[in-house]
Queue: 2 jobs
Job 1
Amino acid sequence: MADSDYDVAVVGGGLVGVATAWGLARAGCRVAVLDEGDRAVRASRGNFALVWVQSKGLGLAPYAGWTLRSSNAWLGFAQTLKEETGLDVCFQRPGGFHLALSERELEARANTLKRLHNQPGIVDYKTEILDHGQVAKMLPDIGPEVVGGSYCPFDGHVNSLRLFRTLHTAINARGVTYLPSHRVETIERQGGVFRLTTEKGPVSAAKVALAAGNANMRLAPMVGLLAPMKPERGQIVVTERLRPFLHYPVTTVRQTDEGTVMIGDSKEESTDPSGLTLGVSATEAERAVRQFPLLANVNVVRTWSAIRVMTQDGFPIYDESETHPGAFTVCCHSGVTLAANHALTIAPMIARGALDKSLVAPFSARRFHVQEAG
Amino acid sequence: MFKRLAEAGAPVAITVDGKAISARTGDTVAAVLLLAGIDHCRTTPVTGAPRAPYCLMGVCFDCLVTVDGVGSRQGCLVPVRDGMTVETQLGKREAGR
């Protein structure tokens, strides 16, 4: 094999990229992370920070098992990061709730979970539908309009900004070369080596892992891969820091380790991260107050919008190129939840040079080819 | 530590943490706290470090207090009013209070 600067070039310095890079470095690879600059549309700084299991996998049963695998690996992942960096990412797994504000919402939730669990080969999430009284035993501050909800003991959350910082600290400590302002323009494979051109000059590597979020759509075809994406915008409302009152994360409301309450989960078909739809924030805040009336007099200190990384069907894409051996895609919506899998399972596969089909075959982008999907 | 200027306005009755404190028309809440010798008006939510009014011009957000039940008001930007209740804030705020 011809000489190259690195064993693996990871394209993308967000949570998916740095989790993968850390795993590759642990496997002994010489790794470079090629990132955009400060103006990058950075989903890793805008997300809601759930490590979430319940409701994942409707339409693709293996995604449920893949999610649970990462959820189960998360505590060890967080502990290892702490040993390496001294930083605590504040992972907690008390279980989590989805709350319903009407009988119709609760019935819709129950139906979704029933359809999810009726799929062949599904793992058991142990998710239960609870009524108002059962929810109130664990969430005593719910309002009278909360008719019930679903609870899954595997759900949790993390301080995702600290996770992002911790992973960057960890890859730096392991000798990974971080290259900011290296937006990748083209990728070519010549003589068994990938040559990536960037605004700051060329980089070469024996392998390339595409972890560039929605930009994978542009990059994947350069190495014979496919990453159909459907970016969407979400908005989050953030309150001042409050004494702990919410001891379980809820799909739309969670209290961070430092006391802040985050309110979110909106979806808009927009790719503009600089705007904010006030009506969406208002609806999010109004629903949060109906769920937890004590939030009514709390000060909001920030709102923001961010662009979700989203594949066209919402499920992850892990692929290796047949035409460009050594090129991989690592692409998903849930970069926080699946960080443990990317670090501990996907990265070692890339280091070995082959994806383990028994684990990730269902997540090939071949599913988007109607004729080829078998 | 601080002395009131001669041209101070008419007396206004306010309370700080339930205690009557002498104030004058035109004072800000932060000025009244300083004059009363209250050496910190809050402690920070995460580390619990004490904080007192500092910049007195709306920039530093260190003088946050609860005014008439509304939390995290900037004391330096709120003029006193007769009957006003001011509460210092210790650590994280209690939601629903």
Note: The longest strand of chain A covers residues 232-241.
Job 2
Amino acid sequence: MRAWLQHHRISLVKTVARLLASPFSTLLNVLAIGVALALPVGAFFLLGNLETMSQQVSVEPQLSVFLSANAAKSDIADIASRIKGSTGVLSARFVSRDDAIAELKRVAGMEDVIATLRRNPLPDAFVVTLSTRDSAVVDRLEREFKSLPKVAHVQGDSLWARRLDALLHLGRTAIVLLSIVICVALVAVTFNTIRLQILTQQEEIEVCCLVGATRAYIQRPFLYLGSLLGVLGGCVALAIVLATARILNSDLAQLATLYGADLQLRLPEVSHIVFVFGACTSLGWLGAYWSVSRHLLVFERR
Amino acid sequence: MAIVSFQQVSKRYAAGLEALRSISFSVDPGEMVFITGHSGAGKTTLLKLIAAIERPSQGTVLVGGQNVSAMRATAIPHLRRKLGLVFQGQKLLYDRSVFDNVMLPLIVTGQPYREATRRARAALDKVGLLDREKANPVTLSGGEQQRLCIARAVVNRPAMLLADEPTASLDAAYASEIMDMFSAFNQVGVTVLLATHDLRMVEKWGARTLTLDHGKVK
């Protein structure tokens, strides 16, 4: 057990020493891995921000129910009770045609336009707030309200939110695909790095085999090397993402003051950072393991 | 019980070359055996089969009672730890000192560092290289390099030493110095198998001789 720990320590120290022995090629390797990883990590992080922003922006789902122009007071009361009685409806607010035009007049520049009209073209309407965003319920209520007498048109206000959701979903799929491609690249890079390292240490490996080194003994430093390359690559990727987020945040702050909103990219959570490091380490290890098991076969007995 | 036993062992290489043809012999513990024969007679192949560097095409190779020909890959390192190998082409590592070369088998087998240092120094002392422990092997003479190989082979206190042409390319004085060393290890109970084409050595040391001729025991 002590010998085993001692060997693990020696392997790790040797691996670090080996990386430092050729700092330039190590740096280039780590940069290659890091830049490649920065793409999916950054995209993932950006998407996470878009998702939280979309949740903040799209408040409750609403339906606007427009009545036909010939709807009488009794019809309106009837429709109001039918709407309020439906399941899935949180509240319904009546907006009369007079209120609607008054509201429109308050919008800058609209007053002149409205003044040219001979009569109020706007219909009476209900703004219905729903208790759920579930599209099945929204669709059902939309159909139900449309079938009511004296209802001319029903407009789903949440449609744009659903479109955004669909877009975010598309983005997520694209990122998953991108991540897979980058992961394959990471494995390939470590595979090749380890292969070159094995070639330069061929003599040592051969001698170790002859004096009774086990396979695990010979593999260990290379597995450490692969994992270490992964970790360092992960560091570079995160550094790139964090630096980019900082730069973007100062630009966003300007944009936010113009819109009077609070726009800020939130930094990745600790659990996400841990996940990125875990993934990088495992992928580096995997590339190294694959390389070692392929190239050490040469030293097995014929 | 024999420490090495070959039963009808043949070794054919892919190119169709038949290095060994159905040879049988055995070596008792503590014996010193010369394996002689012209170059290409199969001396090196025979030693490689014992150390499980190569696999026989036919027949059974037993080492210390274990069937090496059917041995699993994971068991081979443990077999090799009981052997000391002095092979041609030396295979010294020139990126480290004389001392670190001798340390390698001890680190590989997981000896505690302090004990390993003590043993490495003892082995270097035995071959007369203790004062060169910090040197790079490249600065050693041919004879000294051969002695370093021997130190590395014996540092793990193996039960058996396998040496392939250990005196080739050495002049007579160096050669007999090397032979003295093998003989000394044999005196303390180590089995020694020595492949050589140098018949003067064989005559001088008068040990048991196994002569190979075109892959057969003569």
Note: DSSP finds ten helices and four strands in chain A.
